[in-house]
Amino acid sequence: MLNNINNVFKGSVFQTKEYGTLEYLDNILILVDNKGIIKNVIEKENEYYKPIIEEATNKNILVELSESQYFLPGFIDLHIHAPQWPQAGIALDDSLDVWLNECTFPLEAKYSDVNFAQKVYDDLVKNLVARGTTTAMYFATVHHNSSLELVKSCINNGQRGFVGKVVMDNVEMTPDYYRDNSTNEALLDTEKFIQDVIKLGENVLQGVYPVVTPRFIPSCTDEALYGLGKIVKKYDAYVQSHCSECDWEHNYVKSRLGMTDTQALNKFGLLGEKSVMAHCNFLNEGDGEIFNQTGTSIAHCPISNSYFANAVLPVKRLKKQGVNIGLGTDISGGFSPSLYDNIKQVVISSRMLEDGVDSNISNTNRGVNDSRTSVVEAFYLATKGGGDALKLPLGIIEEGYICDLQVIDINASKSKLPNFNIFNDKKHLLEKILYLSTINNIKQVWIQGKLVYENN
To answer: What is the mean pLDDT of the chain?
Structure first.
């Protein structure tokens, strides 16, 4: 009965297969093969439920949760500036130009030192995995060898990584100590990086993937952006960049190119089904339609947006337009490596968008009506929304999907989440988990069916 099955997981699951719809599966069995793919999900009523438990126990492949533990799908972080990890929490009360020019760019320039890169990247990946992030999409730097160290850190720590070597060739908008030497070299290096990552990932079970990564339009010449679009088409590559993040960027692109970020990125061939654009706070309805038509996804970074974006992403409006949205921490514009924190901020920011923030304006005109996002909807963004953005079977527990799991313990010794037998609805339990869990509540993390983290 369990031929070619590596593990049988027994426990209860919270997930959202559809946006805004919570599903609770009580003490199911998850059968996972040696490639980390879910072969079957068996409910308690199934006639094979008990025989499978008995056989899995005899084969020593049963992973059974305690009564206080629950499975959540692994979280998917769609936007991380990996080299900025040492900067997390630094200069967030300064202006964007100070944050970038006095902290970020000098820091990223240090990654010419491969040994420095290896230490930082290994620490970052470990921290993300410990917080339930099983898949991550990363910006690296302009440095080829150091960017490959980030790929190696993902491989060594069992995380599914999407990594881009950043392109910055516009001499007018980048510091002389930190940019590509030339447009031609930037394009050649991007293609070489793609080839090197593909080679590194040949035997990596969970997968590592190269990503074409223009930092954003201001840092790139038109020639580079057109060239990157051709590379995307040649390799059917993933793409990531920033899009209409803040007033300055949005207006700069309009001034330089006479169109919105969305229109420009589409013209350059950088929008498509494997494209993830960060922030997107200033997308108008026409931009949203382009995202929907091209299949481009948004990486919503609510904590970072609160510091630097000058606006709140209209999640509800964009979802109604059919745009797929996932979540990103945006280290270090966002201080926290935890998508739990960003799930909370999705809800908080949406309430502020709906209610408005200026008490001098009447409450009928202060906010944007019908803008709230629920915590269950935010949970979807961190799981299924991220999987859809990456066009991989990720984010839910279902036959044919990749087995990425977090084990959450609500009775963790240093972080108990009691309900005093009052709020017993399963939705309330998930809300408590999402709002109050700390790193202590995450007892195990499994990626592609393999245990990669355990908190004893």
So the answer is: 97
**d(Cα 266, Cα 371) in Å, to the nearest integer?**
27
CA torsion, points 381, 96, 214, 236, in degrees to nearest 10?
0
Burial (Cβ within 10 Å: 0-12, 13-18, ≥19) of residue 106: middle
> Are the C-beta atoms of residues 9 and 380 closer than 8 Å to each other?
no
Torsion sign over Cα 103, 154, 313, 24: negative
What are the residue ranges of helices labelled H in 33-182?
49-58, 96-98, 105-109, 114-130, 144-156
The 10 Å Cβ neighbour count of residue 423 is 11
Give the pLDDT score at 1.
Answer: 82
Q: How many CA atoms does the CB half-sphere of 407 hold within 13 Å?
A: 25
DSSP 213-240: EE--GGGS-HHHHHHHHHHHHHHT-EEE
Phi then psi for residue 137, to 5 deg, are: -110, 120
pLDDT 10s digits, 339-386: 999 999 999 999 999 999 999 999 999 999 999 999 999 999 999 999
Tally of residues, the chain: 456
Is the pTM above the cut of 0.90? yes
Token digits of residue 255? 């001034």
Mean pLDDT of 171-189: 97
Do 152 and 91 form a contact (C-beta atoms < 8 A)?
A: no
Cα gap 411→367, rounded to integer Å: 40
